[in-house]
Amino acid sequence: MSFISVSEDSHFPLQNLPYGVFSTKENPKHRLGVAIGDYILSLPEIKHLFRGPIMSQHSHVFDEPTLNAFMALGQDAWREARHNIKTLLSANETTLRDDVTLRHKAFVQQKEAVMHLPAKIGDYTDFYSSLDHATNCGVMFRSKENALVPNWKHLPVAYHGRASSIVPSGTPIRRPLGQTSTSPNSPPLFGPCKLLDFELEMAFFVGPPSTLGHPVSMADAEKHIFGMVLMNDWSARDIQKWEYVPLGPFTAKNFGTTISSWVVPMDALKPFLTSNYKQDPKPLPYLQHDDPYSFDIKLQAEIKPEGSKIPTVITTSNSKNLYWTMKQQLVHHTVTGCNLNPGDLLASGTISGPTPDSYGSMLELSWGGAKSIPLGGGQQRKFLQDGDEVILTGFCQGVNHRVGFGVCSGKILQIGRAHV
What's the predicted TM-score (pTM) here? Predict the structure, then answer.
């Protein structure tokens, strides 16, 4: 228990302690912080209290404007820092609890903070790791008999995304312009996307770098995984349909990707490990691992239309629905010798479950626009409209506590006249 009051439904109890980057109106400098209840613990203000053998020599990383330098230190440093922070926040530890002056400087209310991207993201890769999502898309675009392409169950399929347009939760997303086609025999049209979609995803940040030309083994993969965030990889389905052959998504995906602001460390998620998805056929030996590395993270997506006070839950899913694990994704990413760097972001792809109420995108929920999705107030949607806010949440349920990710939200802005 912490001396900071934390409600049972808070995403940020003492068992979590996620990292983020924040500023305030009074102090616009980007600072590293840890969420606890409704507060942020400012790490620069308490860096002198890190007295362990590793962090006492590297406490300067807490003065950085991003988490990259801390991510690069590796698991031993992360665990030492986590233990130190957990001790300082504990109810029976007086060092911070009873120092009124330090507490005043070190704690900021979350409602008074502005959150920023937690890391400088050099590279971003988006996988396609949900069997149900891949099957649903395959049935819609090909046939039930040919839903999965031949390679899908043999390797974690992915594409390289655009890191420059990754934004923190709360950042508005402008409806993209692009080319679409209504007929293969007609010239393409240019204009605003008409089939705008969200994708319910999760992602993880890379910690220590790997070396160019040296694949990361399965035995070492976990050492490179710092922590997880929620992700919405916004998608322009009509633009994507026209452009994706032969090289995959391009402008249909590069206009915006939203992530939650708090990075939940893997040690906070360890109590919620669950069995991996049964893989048949077995992948090649370099992708095999028997230890569980799937997580019971309950996921939800809501839509709040312009002018509405209450959002509508449109889907619930779970990260354990992923066929490929994060370790498999990282290992396959580096099997060619591709090097990873601290702050690189690797995303799961849309996380859909086996039932229609667990589909992770409007494309699936509306089945390509054939069905309407009911919202509150008598409204309906097939795809997103201007003014719609999409709100993703996710948490692990413990005994009398939750380990959560906060929210991952974004509101759709219309294209201004000057853009058309």
Answer: 0.97
User: How many Cβ atoms sit within 10 Å of the Cβ of residue 342?
Assistant: 23
Is the Cβ–Cβ distance between 418 and 407 less than 8 Å?
no
Whether the Cβ atoms of residue 240 and residue 253 lie closer than 8 Å to each other:
yes
Q: Is the bond leading into 246 cis (omega within 30 degrees of zero)?
A: yes
State how far the Cα of 66 lies from the Cα of 32, in Å rounded to an integer. 7
Residues 14 and 398 sit within 8 Å (Cβ to Cβ): no
Q: How far apart are CA 295 and CA 372, in angstroms?
A: 31
CB 326 within 8 Å of CB 293: yes
**pLDDT above 90 for 187:** yes
Any bridge partners for residue 18, and if so which?
Answer: none
Catalytic machinery residues: 133
Please report the beta strands in 110-199, taking only residues with DSSP state E, as ranges in sequence order: 113-116, 124-127, 158-160, 166-168, 173-174, 177-180, 189-192, 196-197
Tokens of residue 416, six digits: 């201004």
pLDDT at 415: 87
